[in-house]
Amino acid sequence: MNLISRCRNYAVSAGLYFCYLLGACILTMLVEAMLLFFLDHLVLLSYPVQAIIRIVIYTVGISGVLGVLGYYEGYREVSCSVGETVAPWIPVAILHLLLAMLFKFQAFISGAVRFLAGFIHNGWKLTIETLVEKTPYSLFLLVFLGYTAWYILIFTICKYLGAQKRICDRAELRKNERTANEDV
Predict the structure, then answer these.
(1) How far is CA 64 from CA 22, 38, 131, 155, 176, in A?
(2) Residues in Cβ contact with 5 at an 8 Å cutoff, skipping those fewer than 6 apart
(3) Averages of pLDDT over each 10 residues, the chain, 184 residues
(4) What sections of 43-136 are H helices per DSSP?
(5) Of 54, 62, 73, 146, whose CB is crowded by the most CB atoms within 10 A?
(6) Rounded Cα–Cα distance for residues 73 and 68 (Å)
(7) Which are the contacts of 128, defined by CB distance < 8 A and separation ≥ 6?
């Protein structure tokens, strides 16, 4: 494959991965808002408990959506080169970081980063004010990088598993074809 077509494939993959990531964040935010709305009407939750619930929802939700999309993509492509999967994530991570910094790591763009960084720094004394004012910006960046690495890892592993499943399905079909042809 020549350099121009490879760059074009990386650019298309990066665009798709960015849409996957942004869509996963927004979808998870909607689920989180709805769930916390109902929970808050049933039980009065303190802010640190709400933050823990948000951390769990965003971590599981975004990872799950990216995992399903990665599995589907691997199953569709029937291959998973780690280099070709991870390389398009680099510009996605940079663009995602810039947008997250622009919006001050709000959940709709960065998931649980804001809540986890605030909880790590403030512990059970976490409030809305301490989340924004007292948490060091470097901790937001560190947590963001950790989550980015986690998302890339989940996507790559699930894409590999999807490709392996497709290969196993093909082998099973070919085995059944051989036994059907031998019976004739």
Answers:
(1) 13, 22, 26, 9, 33
(2) none
(3) 82 94 95 92 88 95 97 89 90 95 92 92 86 88 96 96 91 72 58
(4) 47-77, 82-86, 89-102, 107-110, 113-122, 128-133
(5) 62
(6) 9
(7) 47
Torsion of Cα atoms, 141 then 53 then 23 then 143, to 10°: 10
Predicted model pTM: 0.89
Residue indicated by tokens 């999309």: 69
pLDDT of residue 46: 86
Please give the pLDDT value at position 9. Answer: 87
- How much is the pLDDT for 84? 86
Residues of 6-27 as b/e, b for ≥16 C-beta within 10 angstroms? eeeeeeebbeebbebbbebbee
The DSSP-derived string for 122-145 is HGGG--HHHHHHTS-HHHHHHHHH
The residue to which tokens 């823990």 are assigned: 52
The answer to whether 57 and 28 are in contact (CB under 8 A) is: yes
Q: How far apart are CA 130 and CA 134, in angstroms?
A: 5
80, 162 in Cβ contact below 8 A?
Answer: yes
**For residue 51, what are its two tokens?**
């933050």
pLDDT of residue 174: 81
Going by C-alpha positions, the residue among 37, 154, 54, 53 that lies closest to residue 106 is 54
What pLDDT was estimated at residue 1? Answer: 59
